[in-house]
Predict the 3D structure of the following.
Amino acid sequence: MNNGLSGFAVGAAIAGFLLVIIGVPMALYPRYNVWSEGQVGKAELAKAEYNRQVLVRTAEANDEAAKYTAQADVTRAQGVAQANQIIGKSLENNKDYLTWKFIDELPQNKNQIIYLPANGNLPFTEATRLK
């Protein structure tokens, strides 16, 4: 009987060992699944938050760049306006310069028709000149 009892004890020990080896992971696997899914969800949430921050920062940078571009356009327009005023003032008193500039440009415009005002501000036409 001593032999049978020790065989029973060995069998019970093996059964207990198998129960621990197989049973414990089976009992803990659902909890691990829940924990693992929670970690995946946290990672996805962190990534979505990061992507949102990137989009917000990009939009802010584009807004700031547009403001600087608009400011540069205003500055450029003010410079052009000042230049036009300076040129306009100098030409108001110097109509002879405009006449000279017109005459100076004539040789470069050989194939163009130029209308000069005549009596009553009606232009002379040269309809037959180019035939």
